[in-house]
Amino acid sequence: MSSHYVYDKDNFRFRKQSRSPKAVVLRILKYFLASVSLAILYYMVFALFFSTDKERRLKAENRMYEKMYPEMEQKQKLLEDVVSGLEVKDNMIYNDLFQTDIVSLGSESSHFLSGSDSLEASDITRHSESLYAPMRGKAREIDDTFMEIFKMLASSRADSLPPLEFPIKNLTYTSFGASVGDKINPFYKVKVRHEGLDLIAPAGTPVCASADGVVSAVQRSAKGLGNVVSVDHGNGYVTRYAHLSGIKVGRGRRVSKGSVLGEVGMSGNSFAPHLHYEIWKDTVAMDPVNFFFSSVTPEEYSAMLLLSASAGQSMD
């Protein structure tokens, strides 16, 4: 117990006054709470009006991310569109070669399993069991597709496979012109249907058969496609080589892949020396670019697709 002196105004003297332990504790607690309150107030004022180096750095990063977000959103949308376009193109190529749609494996489990580090094992097990039956169905579908391909290959002769080689040796993607589609005619300046692929090469460059087959037609003309050689490869595949300056084969002749059929020229209605190359499957014009993927690297093939699709004017 502590004591202190107080002045007694009635008796005009100092008298001794004792403090109880409870009063001392309350007094200490009062000062403690006041100190804590002042400390909190000081911290709030400091945090409100002043920033640490780390906070300033984080605020600057947030402002930068706010500016970058719209641009990143646009890039993401562009990438999604590119991926969608590649999927469509991939299905077109697959369909051209195997006459069936590509099997889609889907991505049903990707979003669920993306947080697998925080999932219970029982949840993953139940989710896997729910996907088992659909995956078995897709596996059977893939097996059936492969069986159809194997049957097609087994029933095909070695000389009746799709034409997968370049008709001009040492061809690069820079030689690719307009492909199949509605293109501007260089002479009439109107859009007309273009049934083949323009391959730019110097006059006199050898033109070779893109696969084994039999020469089904030879046409010599000063109009249209000019001098043309057609080769039947079996299984409904026919290739045509147009605007030739010279023809080295005759109708009915059996040719092998790489056999010289003629030379690049500009016979008929040709704007400049080039080879107009067509691939037909069961009387339907195919895009020849879809058949070149095995002859080049993926980077070169992408460049070929871009050039052939973006060319708006044909050369014939």
TrEMBL record:
InterPro entries: Cell_wall_metabolism_enzyme, Dup_hybrid_motif, M23ase_b-sheet_dom. GO terms for molecular function: metalloendopeptidase activity. The keyword Acyltransferase does not apply. The chain crosses the membrane at residues 28-50. Gene3D superfamilies: Glucose Permease (Domain IIA). Keywords: Membrane, Transmembrane, Transmembrane helix. Signal peptide: none annotated. It comes from the Bacteria. SUPFAM superfamilies: Duplicated hybrid motif (SSF51261). Residues 193-288 form the M23ase beta-sheet core domain. PANTHER family: LIPOPROTEIN NLPD (PTHR21666:SF286), PEPTIDASE-RELATED (PTHR21666). This is M23 family metallopeptidase.
